[in-house]
Amino acid sequence: MYEYIKGSVVSVTPEYIVIENNGIGYQLLTPNPFAFSKYEEQTVTVYVYQHVREDVLALYGFISMEEKRLFEKLISVSGIGPKGALAVLASGDPQQVVTAIEEEDEAFLTKFPGVGKKTARQMILDLKGKLAEVVPEFFPNLFQPDLQEKKAGSSNELEEALLALEALGYSAREIKKVSSKLKLEQLSTDQYIRKGLQLLLNG
């Protein structure tokens, strides 16, 4: 079982990043791959969860141990797989997720791809009151401040962000609805993704 991998970010795609360590490239599925863009060709520590099934062997990467632990909590809920958990974490605002669970806000939780009323109810039943150990004070330091660095946006960055939203499970109709609003912004790919997710979650 892997705990973390420390290496160079050699590739960033809408679905995963590649970390090279001692000549081996590890493909890591992450909530928001473009959060790692500024670390390309730099050394970074990525916390890893290894997912094994009969037909699947995949590695999931996270920017912090707390984020990894929340991922593990989410996939422990019946009806939520790794892809669904990534979509929840990709919102970039764990406080909203934790608050929704604690306040039994099913309407908010069902806005995530693949989360219906039954799954939202199961999340509340399984996780309410059990997240304090992994999300102290609602993850005040979950997403590192330097990942928020603003840079000039471009059509290429917007396209990458829309591909990432599609990879998370949002439909073409949902993506088209928010893309018109995103086009008005000048953001980095990472920021486009987070802005898009907030628009999708807020309806």
UniProtKB/TrEMBL annotation:
GO biological process: DNA recombination; DNA repair
Keyword Flavoprotein: no
Keywords: ATP-binding, Cytoplasm, DNA damage, DNA recombination, DNA repair, DNA-binding, Helicase, Hydrolase, Nucleotide-binding
GO-annotated cellular components: cytoplasm; Holliday junction helicase complex; Holliday junction resolvase complex
SUPFAM superfamilies for the chain: DNA helicase RuvA subunit, C-terminal domain, Nucleic acid-binding proteins, RuvA domain 2-like
Any one Pfam family match given in the protein's UniProt record, by short name: RuvA_C
Single GO term (MF): ATP binding
Residues of the Helix-hairpin-helix DNA-binding motif class domain: 72-91, 107-126
Top-rank taxon, per record: Bacteria
Region Domain III, annotated ranges: 154-203
Location in or out of the cell: Cytoplasm
Family in the record: Belongs to the RuvA family.
Role, per record: The RuvA-RuvB-RuvC complex processes Holliday junction (HJ) DNA during genetic recombination and DNA repair, while the RuvA-RuvB complex plays an important role in the rescue of blocked DNA replication forks via replication fork reversal (RFR). RuvA specifically binds to HJ cruciform DNA, conferring on it an open structure. The RuvB hexamer acts as an ATP-dependent pump, pulling dsDNA into and through the RuvAB complex. HJ branch migration allows RuvC to scan DNA until it finds its consensus sequence, where it cleaves and resolves the cruciform DNA.
Assembly and interaction partners: Homotetramer. Forms an RuvA(8)-RuvB(12)-Holliday junction (HJ) complex. HJ DNA is sandwiched between 2 RuvA tetramers; dsDNA enters through RuvA and exits via RuvB. An RuvB hexamer assembles on each DNA strand where it exits the tetramer. Each RuvB hexamer is contacted by two RuvA subunits (via domain III) on 2 adjacent RuvB subunits; this complex drives branch migration. In the full resolvosome a probable DNA-RuvA(4)-RuvB(12)-RuvC(2) complex forms which resolves the HJ.
Notes concerning its domains: Has three domains with a flexible linker between the domains II and III and assumes an 'L' shape. Domain III is highly mobile and contacts RuvB.
Protein name: Holliday junction branch migration complex subunit RuvA
